[in-house]
Amino acid sequence: GAYVSLSQVSKTYASSRGPIPALVDINLDIRPHEFISVVGPSGCGKSTLLKLVAGLEGVSAGSVRVAGRQLDGPPDRLGAVFQRDVLLDWRTILDNVLLSIEFTRKPTPAERDRAMALLKRFGLAGFEDRFPFELSGGMRQRASICRALLADPELLLMDEPFGALDAMTRDDLNVELAQIWQDTRKTLLFITHSIVEAVFLSDRVVMMSKAPGKIVDTITIDLPRPRR
Ligand code: ADP
Ligand code: ADP
């Protein structure tokens, strides 16, 4: 069965100038361990789709199910990375990564070790005691990914995670992301406005159009994966 299932989902935002339809009649099943990209022009509802799956917004109609359960808030085993990193300036990189556990309880020594191992895996060994402002944009997004992975989520959501970075850093991080996905096989919903990026990275590409946002095509990608 599907790990994430959107069925006849519509989303309309209320605003002072009246209702704004953002998504209509979205049907999408994401299989366990699938890497799926969503592409489309600005304003077509990509972020809204991700927020619905993250349980950060509620649907106006239809249903979103994750791991067989209808969502009524953020799903349990979720990691998310957004375009702007959400690192806290006053915490070190290690303490930022540990936040994903600390929201609920004190991290164990084993979890601290795991955080250190993740930082090393992402080329951030030696930076654990630095503060976010001391790191480049690419390094901060790497730390954000470490944070998303620390709690070992079943589902990863990424909303243009490298969109604010320069082209070269972005290419590097896309290659790293492909490797991480091969290592971890997290179910991954990835939002981008780059069709090239989507085809390079994912198993399936969902194409959206706007006014209001709907799915216009879904393409299965059957290409050899980039390898280390
Ligand atoms: P994308 O991520 O593809 O750029 P969004 O999901 O951000 O698209 O936006 C889809 C539509 O919904 C746009 O018309 C946008 O203006 C509108 N929208 C998004 N968030 C809100 C909100 N909080 N309130 C009102 N309208 C919103
Ligand atoms: P990225 O591609 O991750 O954005 P940069 O291209 O800015 O990183 O930097 C390349 C390398 O330079 C980094 O992987 C890191 O080893 C080092 N570096 C970058 N910023 C800093 C910093 N503020 N302090 C120390 N080393 C840094």
TrEMBL record:
> Where does the record place the ABC transporter domain?
4-228
State whether keyword Transport applies.
yes
Query: What top-level branch of life does the organism fall under?
Result: Bacteria
Q: Which GO terms describe its molecular function?
A: ATP binding; ATP hydrolysis activity
Q: Which UniProt keywords apply?
A: ATP-binding, Nucleotide-binding, Transport
User: Is Transport among this UniProt entry's keywords?
Assistant: yes
Protein role: Involved in beta-(1-->2)glucan export. Transmembrane domains (TMD) form a pore in the inner membrane and the ATP-binding domain (NBD) is responsible for energy generation.
Family classification: Belongs to the ABC transporter superfamily.
Q: What is this protein called?
A: NitT/TauT family transport system ATP-binding protein
Record organism: Bradyrhizobium erythrophlei
